[in-house]
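Form 7-S
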Amino acid sequence: VNDRFFSTPVTLHNGLYYERENSYLYDKDGSEIGRLALDRVKGQFSVGVHLFRKLLLMAGISGERLWLEKNPQFGLSANTVEQWTGFAQVAFDNTDDHHFPTKGVRLLLKGESVADINFSALSFTKFQSEFACHFPLRKGQTINALLFAGISINGLPIYEKFRAGGPDNLQGIHRNELWGDFSLLTRLTYQIKLFKRWYFQTNLSMGNVNNSHLSFDNSIKGISTGVVADAPFGPVSILYGQSENGRSQLNLSLGYDF
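Output:
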């Protein structure tokens, strides 16, 4: 539940959710080599202050339990993990539309620190930032630029690593194909309105995900083109992407992310 506390700028963000994850894992050539299967139950309590209708300051705590399935290929045994997470974030957004902005900027800074409830060796800290600019042009055209950076301390367990790949970033490779403790991604998008709620879109992206440092060294580059729409049930996109190494993907996306 996310709601204002009466008519004050104080915002409460509380909830309980369950997630079943069954993610594909790939080798460096993009061939599937296994899956990560887990169940996650998470409860969250946080308090925020919403200022000037554009800026949100928030901090909170969450507790969660994860059930990991056995995967001998990656040295994972069947295991149950219980952990506490303390987090804080700053968000600024003055764009004119959440899903199809034509002007404005969006900034998100988030940090979280995790400790195992049973005080085992499992503890880590991660920080991430995302900055997006949207520039309107003439006749329904827009240029959008995005930069994302993620870093970690003490290394991340496999189920918490940063991920990249797919229609939103590093087009041409599998969705969430790259996993790592550090992530640096950038994307430039050109968009023009075709008619009513339909747009033609082209994306150029570059980035790197690894376990050692934050860098654009050995970055993967990708390009995608296609059509996107602002449908009543959520965004729709049909994009064909190709990476610099010749790999390609056709991606169809319907509705909102949960």
